[in-house]
Amino acid sequence: MMMMMMKVSELVLVLSCVLCVSADVFHEDLAIGGCSDTDGEDMYSLDGEEKWYADFINKRGVEPQPSFMDHTSYREGTYEQAVTNQQICRSNLKNSRLGMKDIPVENDPPSGLIVYSRDEVELGVKNTLICHVSGFYPAPVNVSWTKNEQKVTEGTSINVPFPLKDGSFRQTSRLEFIPQLGDVYTCTVRHPALNQPLTRIWDVEVQQPSIGPAVFCGVGLTVGLLGVAAGTFFLIKGNECS
């Protein structure tokens, strides 16, 4: 099934979506290619997980699959084909602008922005902050990080925009960091549909283990044992007197 999405004249996206059936299990295989004057995207995914995308800046294909997954490799020449697709896309974009010059631009601002840590926070232990943006159109968004009000670029990364079923996009930026008590981080998102940037604050907090239940449990157990001992003592004394 081929579907053309042209909500604005600045961006043309072609989506190819195939539903594969194996026994009683449905899988969604998605390919997306897109371009603008300055950006381009060519990506494949399975069940919402990115399997391969073209990195046009470093001129290579990327397989962002974690090590614990069954690795899928794409055939040689996939990146070169993505470059060719970009040339075709820009040619189509030029023709589309001629035919859509009077169509107003539609922009949808992000509807969701959350920041969270990948793992449970432990002071001094390397972790990853995740800034998840969703519900925006067109793609991409611009994401920036700060630590204690100082801009941070080292250790940051961002995935390619991922299309949602309503025609909007989601995108995720990551920041590798080492938690230290008192540090404050921010994730700021910029998009053409926003009058001002969106910012979320995340500060390092470590939950201390609660000792209350253990203390009360210990006190209760001690009182209970004392009660049993006292009862046994008086029972023995009563039997001796009789």
Automatic annotation (TrEMBL):
Q: Does the keyword Cytoplasm apply?
A: no
Which InterPro entries does the entry mention? Ig-like_dom, Ig-like_dom_sf, Ig-like_fold, Ig/MHC_CS, Ig_C1-set, MHC/Immunoglobulin, MHC_I/II-like_Ag-recog, MHC_II_a/b_N
The entry assigns this protein to a family as follows: Belongs to the MHC class II family.
Q: Which residues form a coiled coil?
A: none
An example Gene Ontology cellular component term from the record? MHC class II protein complex
Domain Ig-like, chain residue ranges per copy: 110-199
Subcellular compartments: Membrane
What name is this protein filed under? RLA class II histocompatibility antigen, DP alpha-1 chain
Q: Gene encoding this polypeptide?
A: LOC108882203
Q: How does the protein's chain sit in the membrane according to the entry?
A: Single-pass type I membrane protein
GO BP annotation list:
adaptive immune response; antigen processing and presentation of peptide or polysaccharide antigen via MHC class II
Q: Which organism is it from?
A: Lates calcarifer (Barramundi)
Which Pfam families did the record assign? C1-set (PF07654), MHC_II_alpha (PF00993)
UniProt keyword list: Adaptive immunity, Disulfide bond, Glycoprotein, Immunity, Immunoglobulin domain, Membrane, MHC II, Signal, Transmembrane, Transmembrane helix
Q: Which SUPFAM superfamilies match?
A: Immunoglobulin, MHC antigen-recognition domain
Q: Which residues cross the membrane?
A: 211-236
> Where does the record locate the signal sequence feature?
1-23
- Note the superkingdom of the native organism: Eukaryota
Q: List the taxonomic lineage.
A: Eukaryota, Metazoa, Chordata, Craniata, Vertebrata
Respond yes or no to whether keyword Signal is given for this record. Answer: yes
